[in-house]
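Page 42, continued from yesterday. The earlier attempt failed because a stray header line got pasted into the input along with the sequence. Redoing it now with the clean sequence only.
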Amino acid sequence: TYQVRPAQDKVRSALFSSIGPYIPGCKFLDLFAGTGSVGIEAWSRGASLVCWVENNPRVAKVLQKNVLTLCQNRNSSHGEIIIQIEDALTFLQKKLVKFQFNVIFAGPPYVTRRKPAQPVQWTEILPEAVAQSKMLAPGGLFILETGISHHVENNEIENKSEDFLKKIKVKIYGGTILTFYTTKD
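This time it went through. Structure tokens are written below.
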């Protein structure tokens, strides 16, 4: 079973400490948005546009409520917001937006031990999907959050995206891994 897992405060704080300079004025994409905590943090730090993509309609209702509350508590002209209720991979394939994002964050669901099937290898699939979508602006950042159980070092798969993305760092926080990529210039 997959579970909604809001980004832990410690991990979210470490993430924004790393990417803080990229946020003011940026276009920020939050894939597998869940309750929206990462995109909300980006918006509160000055992102000019935040797009949340969440597949689960029930979770998306919570996301919409959280974003509405945020907008009511702040100047609504602060930045543009988009909430897309759709599968993240489908969103990347459809290229629904006509612009590129400066920062793309993907926090796919972790697999629980109750799920006997082969877990999805997000570290293999998402870098390639982001690269093929061309939604990441030149010099932009793609950050993938995974659990230790999802993290694989599979250069053969990652090489499929090597013409567009390069891995620049990996940070481990307990059972959570943040992998940072940027575009190749």
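Notes: The chain has one domain: 9-183.
Reminder to self: strip header lines before submitting.
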